[in-house]
Amino acid sequence: MSHWVTDAPIIDAPDFPVPTPFRFADRLYGQRVRNHGLKDNIEKGIDAVKKGAENVTDAASEAAHRSAAQGEQTKRDIAGDQMTTGEKIGSVFNQGKENVGAEVDSVKRDVRNKA
């Protein structure tokens, strides 16, 4: 007694692609028909986690920049006239640099949240 697969006639594959039901559904409705949107939901969740992690990183970086800028201001307030003019200019420059860094991190976070 032979197995039913061996009894089947051998048919050559056609030269043109035969649409399967999934290919047909993909053409009509896109990938969501196959996975019922599960992949989309997973990707949305992953994107939300990445966005949140990047927001936390930028917020921490912004806080570090702002505290460094405040430190420069405090250093000038405490030292006052004991600092030379060059030291004061350098301190003002460093404070400005830290404020710009903080604003860059803030803008990055705002742009990411609006997208």
Structural notes for this entry:
- The chain is rod-shaped.
- The model has no long low-confidence stretch (mean pLDDT 79).
- The protein has a domain at 45-114.
- It has five helices and no strands.
- It has 115 residues and is mainly α.
Short description:
It is built from 5 helices and no strands. The protein has 115 residues and is mostly helical.
Proportion of beta-strand residues:
under 5%
Write down the overall mean pLDDT.
Answer: 79
DSSP summary, beta strand count: 0
Q: Report the total helices.
A: 5
List low-pLDDT spans: none
Assign the structural class, choosing from mainly alpha, mainly beta, alpha/beta, alpha+beta, or little secondary structure.
mainly alpha
Report the C-alpha radius of gyration, rounded.
32 Å
N- to C-terminal distance: 66 Å
Shape: rod-shaped
The amount of helix comes to over 70%
